Amino acid sequence: MSIAVVTDSTAYLSPEERKKYNIFMIPLSVTLEDGVYEEEIEIQAQEFYDKVRNSKVFPKTSQPPIGKFVELFETLAKDYDEVICIHLSSGISGTFQSALQAGSMVEGIVVHGFDSEISCAPQGYYAIQAAKMAQEGKSSSEILEKLEEIKRQMRAYFIVDDLSHLQRGGRLSSAAALVGGLLQIKPVLHFENKVIVPFEKIRTKKKALNRVEELLAQDAEKYDRLYSMVIHANREREAREWMAKLQEKFPNVAFSLSYFGPVIGTHLGEGSLGLGWVPVSEEEQGV
Questions:
Q1: CB-based contact 263:119 (threshold 8 Å)
Q2: pLDDT (0 to 100) of residue 171
Q3: How many CB atoms lie within 10 A of CB 18?
Q4: What is the mean pLDDT of residues 145-162?
């Protein structure tokens, strides 16, 4: 049985990665002052942040039309028996449900959905692991079982410069945003039950980053090897400096650099930083 792996643009996998692992991508869209753009296809992260900085209109995001999924699945049905769809958390987007609905509309191929319950680089990590296993000839049940195992151990935290983006976009409760605004805090946020919630309320960005490092240190001590993703919203230099510091501090952790693209950047805001990690075996460390 041949298996195709599909994800969406919020995994922020490079074209090279998608080609290497044969991963198919469906884009989400962002609406700006001058029009609607499919992220990762019609607009890239740098251009997005430049446009938003010079705009008085708050951007909006939208999930892919169900027809995009139907069209892709119909094409895949010519060469594949099954599809594993890996999408951003169903708690912040309807993309996952659209994929499942489209799958039920297409004959000749079986579509399995995997709700990452997160987004960005961790979502991309799931897609790459699934694609590797598909290339090795693993069954869909084996792949989905492995993804669930990874999910139980995946950790990710992020810090935003301004909570108003999350509150305005409906991805954080008004009460939580109000408290953040009044105290000028830099809360450490994470996904819990598929939605974004404060993990801890901390007063400064430096202390928030230090707290995330402490959480990483706990798992770096607990596990032999970790794979970690440093994620930034148009702050590559700051992210690289943080990553270099972490590499020196945690020799048993392999680090990679990723970014918050237009859709996720709309809700987090420029300047946000994130860190995700997962235990890995020796052969998995060089993902």
A1: no
A2: 66
A3: 20
A4: 94
- pLDDT confidence tier of residue 167, bands split at 50, 70 and 90: low
* Residue appearing with tokens 């680089």: 121
Is there a contact between 250 and 220 (Cβ–Cβ < 8 Å)?
yes
- With b meaning 16 or more CB within 10 Å and e meaning fewer, what string describes 75-95? ebbeebebbbbbbbbbbbbeb
Distance CA 18, CA 252 (A): 27
Looking at residue 73, its amino acid is F
Q: What is the mean pLDDT of residues 67-73?
A: 98
Sheet with 35-38, side-by-side order of all strands: 35-38, 29-32, 60-62
Please name the amino acid found at residue 263. V
Task: State how far the Cα of 245 lies from the Cα of 143, in Å rounded to an integer.
Answer: 34
CA–CA gap between residue 252 and residue 225 (Å, rounded): 5
For residue 248, what are the contacts with CB-CB under 8 A and spacing of at least 6? none
Does 286 have pLDDT greater than 60?
no
Q: pTM above the 0.85 mark?
A: yes
Residue 172 has pLDDT above 80, yes or no: no
Q: How far apart are CA 24 and CA 121, in angstroms?
A: 16
25 DSSP 8-state letter: E
